[in-house]
Structure formats: structure tokens, C-alpha cells
Amino acid sequence: MKPPITPLYHIERGLRLIWMRSRERAYTLKRDGYSCVKCGKKKSSKKGFEQKIEVHHKKGEINWKAIAERIREELLCSPDDLECLCPECHNQISNEKA
For residue 90, is it within any domain? Predict the structure, then answer.
């Protein structure tokens, strides 16, 4: 039986959901008054006057694919590199590596 592989687009979608619901993003929107800091346009959902406001990373664009690949590599690794343990044995092994 071939081991399952989580598609990168599933990981990327999950990461984007985390970002959209993050406290950091929500704080930034509130801090900036739900307005563009460059031109002052305010967020609006009024019919005919819809205006979106996006939160921009000042350090540059996010490479979602690279992050997703790293998650696949570290967290969603091959089942050959995974095993089932009880909590006690898992803690013991984790403490030995620390």
C-alpha cells in the first residue's frame, strides 16, 4: 500500500486560514482603524461602496509554498518516520532528546 501524502495546496490553504484568523492580523486591522495607511481608504461592506483592506507583510511577500514544503518535511513526514506511542513513552523519548 502506498503511503498517503498531504497535497501542498491543502497545507497552504490551512496556513492561509491560520493567517486570516490570527490575532496578529486582527490586531493590525484594529490598530490601523481598518484603513489603508497609505491613502486612508476605509474598509466598507456597504452595497455599491465595497472596499477591502488587506494586511501587508512589510518584510516582503510570504512564500506559502516554501512554508508548506517545510511543514510537510518536518511535521507531515513519511509514515515510515512515524510511530504510535502512549503519552508516557512519548514524553520519555522527547525528554531524552531535549
Answer: yes
